[in-house]
Amino acid sequence: MAVDEIYKFEKEHMSKSIDALKRDFQTLRSGKVNISILDNIYVNYYGSSVALNQVASIMAVDAVTISVSPWEKKILKDIERAIAEANIGINPNNDGESIKLYFPPMTVEQRQESAKHAKAMGEKAKIAIRNIRKEANDKIKKLEKDKILSEDLTKKGESEVQKITDDFIKTVDELVKQKEAELLKV
Q1: Are residues 122 and 70 in the same domain?
Q2: Domain end point (choices 60, 84, 102)
Q3: Mind listing the pLDDT tens digit for each residue in 35-63?
Q4: Which of 24, 86, 99, 159 is the most buried (most CB within 10 A)?
Q5: How distant, in Å, are the alpha carbons of 23, 139, 143, 145 from that of 132?
Q6: How far lies 21's CA from each of 10, 17, 74, 148, in Å?
């Protein structure tokens, strides 16, 4: 395995960490409702645990309302129960046809709490990136141990791995800063 392949591996996996962070951010509530707040909700459907978006259509009706319309009316109660148990801070309103979720305007405390969650998600992404850095450095050290790389090339390789890592950590910091600004904006 060449050092360039290690860099490529590192960049690919660190990019996936950034993508995961962006997906995590979508589950945070900001001023306007986002249907992705329901992404991690699963419904009991014929004995299987199925993602909510696989058994119902989900729409943001306006800035504060989400409508969940099941494809089969008989699972309306199961969907209502799953949303209630998901503890997203909203009580589902079942009108017999669909479930409406009304999100009141966020308080300052809720916004600050969401900003804290964004920071924690950023830290999780940084940890993943650092783990990828460690893996890349281990591969480079193995090349040196196997006498494929000289000590100088090993140092140069580790330096490049660190540079790539720093760039991705900087990206995470920028994304967290942007998300915090979005969350705290009234």
Answers
A1: no
A2: 102
A3: 888 888 999 888 889 998 999 999 988 88
A4: 99
A5: 19, 11, 17, 20
A6: 17, 6, 36, 36
Q: What is the pLDDT of residues 101-151, one digit of tens each?
A: 988 888 888 888 889 999 999 999 999 999 999 999 999 999 999 988 888
Separate counts of helices (H) and strands (E) for the chain: 4, 6
Q: What range defines the domain where residue 89 resides?
A: 35-102
pTM above 0.70, yes or no: yes
Residue 34, SS3? coil
Backbone φ and ψ of 106, nearest 5°: -75, 140
Look at the chain and report how many structural domains it folds into.
Answer: 2
Residues 179 and 115 in one domain: yes
Same domain, 86 and 112: no
